[in-house]
Amino acid sequence: MKSKINLAIIFIATFALMACSPESDFEFSENTLTSPSDFTLVMTPSSGNEFEYNYEVVFGANVSTAYSIVIHFGDGGTTRALSGTHEYVVFAGTYTAQCIITTPYGNTIITEQEIVFTKDNEKAYGDDEDSFLFALTGGKDNVNGKKWYIGPWTAMRNPGNRGEVWWDFKNDALMNDNFTFKPNGLQPNGAFVYVNNGDTHMNEELGHLFPDGNPDGSFVTEHYTPPADATWKITARDGKQYLTITKGFLGYAASPDELNESEYEVVSFSATTIRLYNSSTWDGWAWELTVEEPVIVPVVPKELEEVPMFEDFEGDLSINFVFEDMGPFASAKYSNPAPVPINASKFVFLYQKTNAFYSNISFVAPHLFDLTEQNIIKMKVFIPGYNDFETEGDVAGNWISNRKLRPRVAVKLQNSLRGGNAWETETVRFHDDVETDKWVELVFDFSAVAARIDYDKIVIQFGDEGHTRPGIFFFDDFSFDKE
After folding, report:
1. Element (H or E) spanning 175, and its range?
2. What are the sequence ranges of the domains in the chain?
3. DSSP 104-173
4. 8 Å CB contact between 137 and 145
5. How far is CA 428 from CA 4, 193, 309, 368, in A?
6. What mean pLDDT comes out for the span 279-284?
7. 60 or 290: which carries more pLDDT confidence?
8. ∠ CA(229), CA(233), CA(238), 5° rounding?
């Protein structure tokens, strides 16, 4: 059924039947409804306010009041009343009203009606300084819109613990972007202006969609031109507000679908800061928008040099490793737990992996590594057999297949100039199933990447990464040389 009312308000009835758990709000008599034809959700515009509707749930002559009923108006509002009045304080668009009735048999019968508004309800602008709309745009009179930049909280974060950063994916291609949200004017939705200064940060699966994209792992696609007709809108459901951008996204496209539309759950907002979770792909993507333009510090070029490195942890340190998620006993000068051949030295490095997913130590050199001939890293390691290599722990995500601590040692070369994204550049060499309870010397050969001229960082990891199982390890006589 379709009937046209003033302001092009259209009703389209659709129905669905699905299993559901009943709610005990209303009682049935012997004559119970069994199909959508047994009841109707009647919504009619009220006089005097084109955005106000009278609603009523009408049952067939032989059907009693429902056992459970709820009406969703499609704008975030809900009711359990069988009749009343509801005002749509919304922008122009299509809103789906649903009447959901649960039967005593555990089934749910739904009837839906689409309501189309061809213009905005001016109350939607509100200019309430406490509203998300006002924070986002600066209010309806701010016709040029409000400009936002990427804030420091932006990162891939653990959905179960937002304080835990899984990946800080910010890079220059993202941090030089800005976004302007213009208030709704004559357009159906507000205009979204995305300025990317020529390049945009994207997931590698989008690389093949662009002329100079790299489908083999690049997270930056050059020369992406944001559409000029991108728009935004604010919606509400389940008590939460959402920001939807059509033909646009906030600086990083995580999937091809986001080139057409992206949606973000509003977490918090103020006049100067907005925090969002991506709800169109995966809510691990956390975003912060700020009115403060970030300061991008120019990178000072490093020289390519061949500088042999050695550390035995006996005297003053020549290599000061940086600890990341190391335990309290970690130490660069610890008494050798087994001063016997092949390592009878007095002091060694104690490496304590915690329950953090990516415990490691690292060193950034003041120069770029010339790997032409200097491409061999060696160290002596001692892996205690008292570590628990059998118990499984939690993992960072479904891409991690191993849940156990392992007698494994990995060394990585990275480009530190990529900041939190340095791991994208890395080359890894590792030894698995290292013999326990004895000193062994391990060799990590990087001669296969001797042509790389961007590495300046060394990362060392024991026990494997991506899981929460802790462990104790020792190493000594670290060297980085020609052989």
Report:
1. helix 172-175
2. 4-122, 125-290, 304-481
3. TTSEEEEEEEEEEESS--GGGT---TTSHHHHHHS-TT-TT-EEEEE-TT-EEEETTEEEEEEE----HH
4. yes
5. 66, 41, 19, 17
6. 75
7. 290
8. 150
Q: Rounded to an integer, what distance in angstroms lies between the CA atom of residue 189 and that of residue 195?
A: 19
- Closest by CA to 332, choosing from 318, 343, 321, is 321
Band the pLDDT of 65: cuts 50, 70, 90: low
Closest CA to 432 of 397, 405, 403, 398: 405
Report yes or no: 36 and 18 within 8 Å, Cβ to Cβ: no
CA 357 to chain centre: 17
Question: What is the pLDDT confidence band of residue 125, given thresholds at 50, 70 and 90?
Answer: low
User: Under CATH, which architecture does the 304-481 domain have?
Assistant: Sandwich (2.60)
> N- to C-terminal Cα distance for the chain?
81
DSSP state of 340: B
Q: Does 288 score more than 70 pLDDT?
A: yes
Query: Is residue 94 within 8 Å of 115, Cβ to Cβ?
Result: yes
For residue range 377-419, what is the model confidence (pLDDT) as tens digits? 999 999 999 999 999 999 988 889 999 999 999 999 999 987 7
| CATH code of domain 4-122 | 2.60.40.10
Q: Say whether pLDDT at 448 is over 90.
A: yes
Which pLDDT belongs to residue 8?
Answer: 31
What residues contact 212, with CB distance under 8 A and at least 6 apart? 221, 222, 223
Assess whether the previous peptide bond of 110 is cis (omega < 30° from 0). Answer: no
Q: What is the pLDDT of residues 28-54, one digit of tens each?
A: 344 455 555 667 888 888 888 889 999
Say whether 304-481 and 4-122 share the same fold: no
Burial per residue of 276-297, b for 16 or more beta-carbon CB atoms within 10 angstroms, e otherwise: bbbbbbebbbbbbbbeeebeee
CA dihedral 355, 356, 360, 365 (to 10 degrees): -160
Cα 192 versus chain centre, distance: 21
Q: How far apart are CA 133 and CA 175, in angstroms?
A: 24
Furthest C-alpha separation in the chain: 95
In 3D, which of 4, 36, 286, 312 has the Cα closest to residue 162?
Answer: 286
Q: Is 205 within 8 Å of 233 (Cβ atoms)?
A: no
Distances (CA, A) of 378 to 233, 381, 440, 443: 57, 10, 11, 5
- With b for 16 or more beta-carbon neighbours within 10 A and e for fewer, the 429-438 pattern comes to bebeebeeee
Confidence (pTM):
0.54
Give me 212's structure tokens: 């100079």
DSSP code of residue 419: G
Picking from 276, 193, 256, 236, the residue whose alpha carbon sits closest to that of residue 75 is 236
